[in-house]
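Researcher: For the record, we're logging two predictions in this thread. I'll number them. Prediction 1 follows.
Model: Prediction 1, sequence and structure:
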Amino acid sequence: MSMNNTPMSERVHIGFFGKRNAGKSSVMNAVTGQDLAVVSDVKGTTTDPVYKSMELLPLGPVVMMDTPGIDDEGELGNLRVKKSYQVLNKTDAAVLVIDGTEGVSPEDKALMERIRQKEIPFVVAINKIELSDPSVEETVKKELALESDQIAAVSAAAGEGIFELKEQIAAIAQMEETEKYLVRDLLDPSDIAVLVVPIDSAAPKGRLILPQQQTIRDILEAGAISVVVKETELKDTLKKLGTKPKMVITDSQAFSQVAADTPDDILLTSFSILMARCKGNLEQAVHGVTALDSLEDGDTVLISEGCTHHRQCDDIGTVKIPRWIREYTGGKEIRFETTSGTEFPDDLTKYKLIIHCGGCMLNEREMKYRLSCASDQGVPMTNYGIMIAYVKGILKRSVEVFPEIYKLL
């Protein structure tokens, strides 16, 4: 991935929802001016959520999301409907597409209720307006209790009302401007930050992983200096620099060696811990990791990743973390379950602890959803870097750069 590209997690996510053949895909294609989704008169053409990163003026970088029909039937259809509802968890702006020739259905009402519960900005697009009764707009507005600026009458086939719908989407989809940084606010101009990046079988060939790219960019934005080394080169690099660096930021898997090689008067943290702060879950994750001390034989721990990748023979999520936890607990018989990508259980009550990745591939809304699910169900949740630092006995040192968190330990 080029460092010039906007990561998916930082794009506005716009979801198109509705019944089969309401014209979700057609409306999305019309809004973007591109054939992003397959269109057919056959019900259920869209069988899985479709994601497309693109530029959409006047918004800028977005992810357009087409979903299966919310009225699908049968065992497989129910799974597709569940997938559509899951897409809501990452939706920054929702477009509910209603077939103007049929009007509002119970499925439309149920989805609208869920959208409102999640406080997702939305527009209701009445499609096929050229074939509909002239009163359909007022009827839909009344049945769904809509304001005038929450409804749009369109014809995807004729291109009518599409410009106005696009303007409405842009008005509700502006991402909240937040002053959340990875590391920029911790550095002064000309400070040196040393980044430790292991190059092993799990490292993507020819590129750095997203948190490493984002951290380098944030250091540059601060006017500071980034020095990137492998863990085997850190000790020698620190000797050669001549100027003491402000901090060392490491990949969590190399925490032990890096901690041993970094003098105590240099701040130390990890990409994963920086990501936890940026995503707003650092304090929750620091509290949650202490659940490791109360694990008993037969307890189940969920290890969840926000992305999907090919599992390596010594994969961190399925191999290393379970091994470190068993060692930390003195060999207790802990059960481990894993999820990846968009999969995240609705019912978390069976788990004694959730260990999540840094979440670099998840947008803010979805990460907050997962955190709130865990909190609401009383299940402790932490992340990879904090867990590794904790079991290695270096967590307090790893959060010293954040005084408000440091004082909690």
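Researcher: Logged. Prediction 2.
Model: Prediction 2, sequence and structure:
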Amino acid sequence: MKLNIIQQRSRWWLVSGLLVLVSLVAMALSWQQFGAPLRPGLDFAGGTRLQLTHACVIDDSCTEGIDLTAVRQVLSQQGLDSSSLQILGDDQQVLSVRTRTLDVEERTALQTALDTAIGPFDVNSTQIDSVGPVIGQQLLASGLLALLVAFAGIVAYLSLRFKIDYALLAIVALLHDVVITLGVFALLGLGLAVEVDSLFIVALLTVVGFSVNDTVVIYDRIRENSKLSPGSHINDIVDSAVNQTLGRSINTSLTTVLPLVAIVVFGGQTLKYFALALIVGFLAGAYSSIFVASSLLALWRERSGQAYSAAAEADPQPETLT
């Protein structure tokens, strides 16, 4: 089956536009609620996180899950009303409390009060994490800087290998992938209280690298087809290039996504959302490479009066760049 990428490009752009719009709305709602486009985790917001496991889990004597109402009453008595709560585990016997930075005495008082009202909790399973607000801001700034450097490097590389218009349109496709990934996690933060941490920045950087690789393969085939068929219209060249690389793009995406699905289903809590971010980003990247980046290039060449290819199009030497 041959895809008519150019003929149906309005359909592909409509799907992308709707996904991006939903993502932007979700991030706007998240900003109103959390003061950030995504629900910030401890790495970025700073504070103290306590993770407590009911002692009944050890001897498998638990009968009911943790009562969040009782937990909130304890936190209110401790002056921690604004804390974020989450129940973890299939049996709902793990309590995660994220709150402002607590000193040793405050943590001890909180744990004692929870033990009395909810507990007892297993001391050996207790996890305590603390991050200062300054460190959290530095981590966020470093992550954003890493993304900007990655985008700049991609523009430089694609400008040298292809032409500047290839590079800029590839960045548009990458922004499409990043925004959709951010939007999905904004929705998860609003609906399921999913927080993002420094691993999420790593996931975004990985998505950027994977997506641009797919785009480069298609652009390279477009350049080769321009060389082999001088005088052909850019629409025909793009359609041909995408269909020639379609099998490779689908196979690469599937073989990458399937192990990540296994991590989401069977992996631990730490890697679950990291793998989910990669899945969303990789699928968005495959879609944008096939349907967005290629069709945008065809439209740009038509509008700029370069609709018909020439043999010089395939010359990768820097001196031929425009």
